[in-house]
Description:
This protein is α/β, with parallel strands linked by helices and 263 residues long. It has one domain (2-261): Rossmann fold, CATH 3.40.50.1820. Helix content is 38%, strand content 17%. Helix 9 (219-225) links the parallel strand 7 (206-211) and strand 8. The longest helix is centred in the first third of the chain and has 14 residues, at 72-85. It is globular and about 45 Å long.
Amino acid sequence: MFVNVKQHRVFYADGGIAFDPAKPTLVFIHGAGMDHTVWTLFTRYFARHGHNVVALDLPGHGRSPGDPLPSIEAMAAWVLVVLEKMQIEQAVLAGHSMGSLVALQAASSARVSKLALLGFSYPMQVGPPLLEAARKNEHAAIEMLMIWGHDHLAQIGGNALPGMGIITPIQRIVERAAPDVLFTDLNACHTYTGGVAAAASVHDGVHLILGDRDRMTPLKGARAFLPNFRQAELTLLKDCGHGMLEERPEETFQALAAIVQTR
């Protein structure tokens, strides 16, 4: 589906079910270099079980045209404009990796009822080799993203679908991103400094879903940041790296469902 925001078309996936103002709304925000398709399994379920689903393509990603936004603050402001345009008064924001920073930054808005921060850590600094490779639009950046973004077990098999790797589909998503998109996203994560102030503005309803083997955004960073929230709950996924959406889809779904269903 498309919605026009400031003379720009914005794409979002609705899980195949039209928006109903009477239903609660769940907004999904993807990670660096990715798009709405990373949330496909989750959007289908929640759309068919009583929720509006808005899985966004940020500007310059997926089917949303334009240039990628250069900062987490700009992305968060854009998300809130989309919610206003769609007349969404209350929504749960679920963001993965870069998307978790965007959700956190947007959380002070009265339109945000809960946060689900997946693969979250703060600060979310990016290693110089990855950042430089992305700046040069080298495929090595994607390779590093796949290696460091997944537990080693996910790199040798384990998909429930015979004959399909866990990493390959997500790699193809990043590979189809336009030049400079991955670098812009990674640099936005690397330079974001508003996390502490954003956390202070959130009263409750914060839920973190983390992988115990995450090497991209190490668990220790999220745990060290937890005291900045007035109240937060943590779900730890066992034997899981940063790419929980594809590494542990069922466990991730169960954690999300528990958050959404909790009043």
